[in-house]
Amino acid sequence: MIEKARKAGAFGSIVFESPVWSVDLVKTKRASSGRAQVHKLYFTESKAGSRSEEDRQPLREPFGAFLKAIVRLREDAAPKHLDDHATLLRAGRYLHAEMESIGYDPCLLLPDHFDAAARASVKADAGSTAYALGKKLVEIADWINRYNTARVRIDFRNPNPRIDDTNARIGKDADARRAAKLPSDAALDALAEIANLVTEDVDVLRMRTIELLVCGGWRINELLSIPADCEVEEAAYENGKPVLGADGQPVVHYGIRYYGEKGAPPLPKWIPTPLVDVARRAVADIRRITQPTRDAVIWMAANPGRIMVPGFIDADLETMMPPQEVGAALGFAGRSAGLQWCRTWNIPLHGTKAILVRRRDVAAAIRAEIPSPPADIPLELSEYMFLTPANFTHADRATIPGSVRFVTDGMIASFIGGHSETRSVFDRFGKSDAGGQPIRMNSHQFRHWLNTLAQHGGMNQLEIARWSGRKDVSQNAAYDHVSGAQLASRLRDLVEAGQIKGPLAQAHARLAPRDRSRFLEAQIATAHVTDIGLCIHDWSLAPCANHGACADCGEHVVLKGDERQREAAVRLLDETKFLLGRAEEEAADETYGAARWVESQRRVVSGLERIVAVHSDVAVPEGTLVHVPPAPVA
Predict the structure, then answer these.
(1) Sheet with 252-258, side-by-side order of all strands
(2) pTM of the model
(3) Which of 70, 374, 510, 612 is the most buried (most CB within 10 A)?
(4) Per-residue model confidence as pLDDT tens digits over 470-508
């Protein structure tokens, strides 16, 4: 197995025996990712980043070579992101820690070693991480079984449970999870104020980036990969006629072109009308600040070997210059800063008493760090929006003119979250939460927040998925943080607005106006989403008497146009019809108790047929809630 891995071509020309591999990857991250330039795999006992490479202890042999073989063979079979390999290596370290008694020989591994490694991960890591590491331990066991390297078959299943609290909406844990996923009111209020206080370009750039996240709910690396020519305008039409605004002028939709991650097609992100002016200002400011870097990229492409820096534009690149002049050209303040920079950037130094450097070497060092555009996006480097010089957002280091970098997710993260060496924008402007504690947030919270607002407002699930750049509607659930009380409040509002049909709405309409709100509060105290609709049963009063039989329940509401719920109802209807047929056969044979199953299945079939009929009724507008009553008892 190891010899086969040595001959494989994955990762390019690596030194197999080395404990640290510098690899060539087929699947790479967006250039705006802070880990885009990470191309190393560590076959060492310590976790990557915890020690310098010199201090790392290689994994003991022969397990080290065996794990290298797995990593290279799995990449050869199907290219993966570096982080995926790193997770498998981390799982391998836990296994390695349990192998001292067998001399680190993979041929002597037993299922007990895998169980012990999985238990160790539970003690040291968060639940979701332990689950992921358990999956990688299963994969290692599969490689052992595939090549028959152990003396016994490793029958191992992941004992670490998957942490899936997406649908949990009640209780303290659900409240804490919701708070962690969503930006606080204090953070949103502070950002709204800070947006008009920032004046320095480095702050304006990052603040306008935050504003675009609020406008569009992008994944951060989707936003940081947009083209400079990103704006799209399209006339609004309804029934084939232009839509006119209050001023009589045609309404124009405004969007921003972007390239989606996770399989989403490239589409414009249409900006909600109230936020169009915010988005326009953000794009204009970002384009203004980043335009000089795009100009430098275009100029350097037309002038090979040169950089757009005074003293290098027209000069003979073979001539020498003292480091002090290099520092002056790059805008450094200190007299020795130029020499220090040359040493840090590995510029060859000439002479002993009077140190000189060659202009060509300086230019080559700066040009060598120009990033390559992502392979999955059909744009030239000069066409990207978020380009800045090196160190543009760094709090202490001087910006390097002529250099080119992508704005990365880490730059935005430190802006709103801070870290050990950098104060967040909230700290710098003296903003804190209601309790006086520092405000901390991350860029992905805006995406969760906007998706939750869309869910709360009743936006169609297909439209939420499309607007969010998802290829699967089922992924919406992970971003829906509407609580049971909030969902119930939304349902009561819809009843009062006449946007719900059925017995509940009819009973509401028959009441005197003064009694209607109390009636709704009693009937719809809480709510939660089911596979085929919404349940309005008040669990604080009594357990559900119809658990699992939602199709024939008087406390169930259907959301017309929800494609995921419709598909679930159709699938359940087909399955129930099959079961009904079997029950009818048994009843015809006079099997004891079969008649009860026939009656039960017929009621479920009837309820599901009425639910599917709601989704198919063109007279019912999309997004309408329909209260489907249970079938009458015969």
Answers:
(1) 231-235, 252-258, 267-270
(2) 0.64
(3) 70
(4) 555 555 455 444 445 555 666 667 666 666 676 667 776
